[in-house]
Design brief:
The structure holds 2 protein chains of 2 kinds.
Chain A lengths: L2 H11 L2 H11 L6 H7 L9 H13 L4 H17 L8 H13 L16 E6 L6 H14 L4 E6 L6 H12 L2 E3 L7 H14 L4 E6 L7 H17 L6 E7 L5 H13 L3 E5 L9 H9 L3 E5 L7 E3 L2 H9 L2 H12 L2
Parallel strand pairs in A: 1-4, 1-5, 2-3, 2-4, 5-6, 6-7
Antiparallel strand pairs in A: 7-8
Helix pairs in contact in A: 4-5, 5-6, 6-13, 7-8, 9-10, 11-12
Chain B lengths: L3 H16 L5 H17 L4 H15 L2 H4 L4 H16 L15 E7 L5 H14 L4 E6 L6 H12 L3 E2 L7 H14 L4 E6 L7 H14 L3 E7 L6 H12 L3 E5 L9 H9 L3 E5 L7 E3 L2 H8 L5 H11 L2 H13 L4 H13 L3 H7 L7 H4 L5 H12 L3 H5 L6 H11 L3 H20 L3 H7 L11
Parallel strand pairs in B: 1-4, 1-5, 2-3, 2-4, 5-6, 6-7
Antiparallel strand pairs in B: 7-8
Helix pairs in contact in B: 1-2, 1-5, 2-3, 3-5, 5-12, 6-7, 8-9, 10-11, 15-18, 18-20, 20-21
The chains are: A alpha/beta, B alpha/beta.
Bound molecules: guanosine-5'-triphosphate and magnesium ion (MG).
């Protein structure tokens, strides 16, 4: 079966509502989902240099980055040669296959790993303003709906209003929040969070941390300490360390993934703000080079706006409206 | 440091050109390819890169360069000029209304840093003896109002709020009225972060703009933004008519190409840059300096200003006296370390020095921030007595200090040795000026590896 067909089937298997949600989040235009797949290279009669160049630009403009873009296009060129492909329409499924391949990592699931026997602890990390606290709120909402008992730990004691922000989310979704005062030691808050979650027999503990730029050594040390406290208190924990990335971010996201990865052993990525126009293409490079799987995507600010990451759908979104966007941009930037 | 990689890339290319007496068209093309890649890796939008490269190429292969006696330098000059030009030419100040209050409206995507920047601006204005009022018009994000109020308390700046149940347009309007009544000469309106494609939310901003007629509409942009920066900036500009841009989180290690993109699509000046989470971390944006920095031509001005701002004059005098009289202790040393750190990461400062990029030793020179943290931890684990009289630190004390600071005895030994060396060195610089003139070897802090 061709990749294209498989993809269609995969999508069809999903419940209508989930797919619909994903689509409406990913795109504000009304072009049909499946239709968009073939759009990209339609109107092209042959595979030529110009086409590869255009493809390069689409990938670059999706923040895939120069290196990975080159690699992708090179692989595509080879496949075209080997398989003697002549029709531009055959390129899209091929490219999707190559990218999906980079996003689906061997031995690493794109799904959250839950502790099979006991409480699951998830630590959220990332730079300032990417959506850590909001993602925690959304995820708490989801676990709660699954009938799980959730506790949140307000580990951001630094940013003004951060504790209150998490508390509002706690009230909104109806889960407990463990907090200290502003300025308190984050490791101590997390420690208390663990004890409280244990004694309340929680199923899930979600730990918020302050946003920090990865080049701030002190702050990264502080984060390591938080991580150590969790490791010490519960063997095997944290079960997930999720790096939250803003889809709007460019190449620096790679540095974020590297540095946070080294500091606290990031196990997965949450890609937020995909409801905007940014594509978050840098996760392909991150996934490919650092072998960190993307696990969740944020598609808005409401409790329901969180989805599991689906590589196939992500790839579609990557190319969707690339052409329209380009034309618009042409008019605004070009002189 | 922002733009660091870009500077390096361009330098490598230019170095090659520099060595040449004559530049051929092929050379220019080669150089431009490198420039293009570097700019793309720095997140400059690819359309903007295209336009930029074309402009530079045109001038570079033109008479101006090919006929010049020093064509290599000429290319560098052209790139530098065009870059400066693209980033805004001259430094741009905040507008001041001649009918106060001056109203400043902050807009941008979620998480860009509007609230923090609002606080920083309030502080910046207060320092110039103005009386700003902060207006809390983000009624959507949980605890956003609270965040602004906390900042207001810290800064002693009043915050106008009607809670989160009111319409932001009404809040903004009443906020400005309140400012007039209470003689605030500046009003800073913090609005909720929103997507540029969210029609309803964009309409709200438009309504606020029409109602309060702001003198400045500042788009707050995260310096780490990628290719999408052009779409965001364009939408906000079209809808609202921006007057300026604030680039935040530039204290990170992003190259900050978004600065170029945003400037190119909006044609609005970048008025400030955010350099940290604290409220004093707001700096004016100097396009020419930034361009020079990109090209590795140094930024001595910024360096000097930073040093002046960070080092407390009195402390400096005190230090100087201690050096002279040989009463410099580990406590002073820690203090000095903290002062140096206040200036920003040492690598940033070194990068600002002209020619620092070229010096071989500095190329591989990395200030080990971890080492600094270690030194700090060690000194903090000492008793007051030990800090004043390090000679009493015997083996068992060393062990204790190492344990307390999470380091090893060797680390403690090394620090103490370096401190001793430093004291010896200080003896020699009874006259610092003489030393600076005579010696190139200079002074090594224990955290330099
Ligand atoms: N449109 C959109 N906005 C989001 C999404 N996720 C978070 N946000 C918004 O982004 C802003 C920042 O989110 P926070 O959750 O406060 O981010 P954070 O990482 O906790 O920020 P700090 O704690 O300040 O570092 C808020 O306004 C959120 O509502 C998303 O998926 N889509
Ligand atoms: Mg947060």
């Amino acid at each position: 079966m061709s990749f294209f067909k498989r993809l269609k089937e995969k999508v069809a298997q999903k419940t209508e509502s989930v797919t619909q949600k994903f689509i409406s989040g990913l795109s504000k235009t009304s072009t049909s989902f499946v239709g968009a797949i073939s759009d990209l290279f339609s109107g092209r009669s042959k595979i030529d240099e110009e086409l590869f160049e255009e493809l390069e630009e689409i990938l670059i403009s999706a923040d895939v980055g120069v290196t990975t873009t080159m690699e992708l296009v090179e692989r595509l060129r080879q496949e075209v040669k080997e398989r003697k492909i002549k029709e531009p329409s055959e390129l899209q499924p091929l490219l999707s296959e190559i990218i999906s391949d980079m996003l689906e990592l061997e031995g690493k699931s794109n799904q959250l790993q839950m502790n099979p026997d006991g409480m699951t602890v998830i630590l959220f990390v990332g730079v300032n303003g990417v959506g850590k606290t909001t993602t925690i709120g959304k995820l708490a909402h989801r676990f709660k709906n699954e009938g799980k008992k959730v506790v949140l730990a307000a580990g951001d004691t630094f940013r003004a209003g951060a504790i209150e922000q998490l508390e509002v989310w706690g009230q909104r979704v109806g889960v407990d929040v463990i907090k200290h005062q502003a300025g308190a030691d984050p490791a101590a808050v997390i420690y208390d969070g663990i004890q409280a979650a244990k004694s309340r027999k929680a199923d899930v503990l979600l730990c918020d941390t302050a946003g920090r730029l990865q080049n701030k050594v002190n702050l990264m040390e502080e984060l390591k300490k938080v991580h150590r406290v969790i490791q010490r208190e519960i063997p095997d924990a944290p079960h997930e360390v999720l790096l939250v990335l803003d889809a709007t971010t460019g190449q620096n996201a790679m540095m974020q993934a590297k540095t946070f990865g080294e500091a606290v052993n990031v196990s997965g990525i949450v890609l937020t703000k995909l409801d905007g126009t940014a594509k978050g293409g840098i996760v392909i490079a991150i996934s490919n080079e650092l072998q960190v799987p993307v696990k969740l995507v944020g598609l808005g600010e409401k409790p329901d706006d969180l989805q599991e990451f689906d590589p196939a759908q992500f790839v579609h979104a990557l190319f969707k409206d690339a052409i329209n966007k380009e034309e618009e941009l042409e008019q605004s930037v070009g002189e | 440091m922002a733009f660091e990689g870009l500077a390096e890339r361009l330098q490598a290319v230019m170095q090659r050109l520099r060595g040449k007496g004559k530049v051929t068209e092929a050379d220019v093309k080669e150089a431009m390819r490198e420039v293009r890649l570097a700019l793309l890796e720095a997140d400059v939008n690819f359309k903007v890169v295209k336009t930029f490269i074309n402009r530079v190429k045109e001038r570079a292969v033109g008479q101006e360069v090919l006929k010049s006696l020093t064509p290599g330098q000429q290319v560098i000059k052209v790139v530098n000029e065009e870059l400066t030009e693209l980033m805004g030419g001259e430094q741009s100040k905040l507008v001041k209304s001649n009918r106060p209050p001056t109203v400043i409206m902050m807009v941008g995507l979620q998480g860009a840093g509007k609230t923090t920047t609002s606080g920083k601006l309030a502080r910046y204005l207060s320092k110039q003896n103005h009386h700003p009022l902060l207006v809390a018009a983000d009624v959507y994000r949980p605890a956003a109002i609270r965040q602004l109020q906390v900042l207001g308390e810290q800064l002693d700046t009043p915050v106008f709020s009607l809670g989160e149940k009111e319409d932001p347009v009404k809040i903004a309007e009443q906020g400005v009225a309140y400012a007039k009544e209470h003689h605030h000469d500046y009003v800073i309106i913090d609005t909720a972060g929103r997507l540029h494609i969210d029609e309803t939310m964009m309409e709200e901003l438009k309504a606020i703009r029409e109602k309060v007629q702001p003198d400045e509409v500042l788009l707050v942009v995260d310096a780490m933004t990628g290719q999408d920066a052009v779409n965001v900036a364009e939408s906000f500009n079209k809808k609202l008519g921006l007057t300026g841009v604030v680039l935040t989180k530039l204290d990170g290690d992003t190259r900050g190409g978004a600065a170029l993109s945003v400037k190119a699509v909006t044609n609005c000046p970048i008025k400030f840059v955010g350099m940290g989470e604290k409220t004093d971390a707001l700096e004016p944006f100097f396009p020419d300096r930034m361009a020079s920095r990109i090209l590795g031509m140094g930024d001595v001005l910024t360096l000097i200003e930073k040093a002046q701002a960070a080092v407390d004059a009195e402390k400096a005098r005190d230090l100087e006296r201690k050096m002279r009289t040989q009463t410099f202790t580990l406590e002073d040393f820690l203090d000095q370390l903290q002062q140096v750190r206040k200036m920003g990461p040492l690598e940033d400062m070194l990068a600002m020095l002209p020619g620092a990029g070229q010096i071989k030793q500095l190329k591989n020179f990395k200030v080990d921030e971890k080492q600094i943290a270690r030194v700090e931890a060690i000194i903090r684990s000492m008793t007051k007595e030990e800090k004043l009289h390090p000679e009493i630190i015997n083996a068992s004390r060393r062990k204790r200090i190492a344990k307390g600071s999470g380091t090893t005895v060797q680390d403690v030994n090394r620090l103490l040795k370096q401190f001793e060396d430093m004291k010896k060195m200080m003896k020699q610089f009874s006259s610092m000026a003489k030393m600076a003139k005579k010696k190139k070897r200079g002074f090594r802090f224990p955290f330099m590896s």
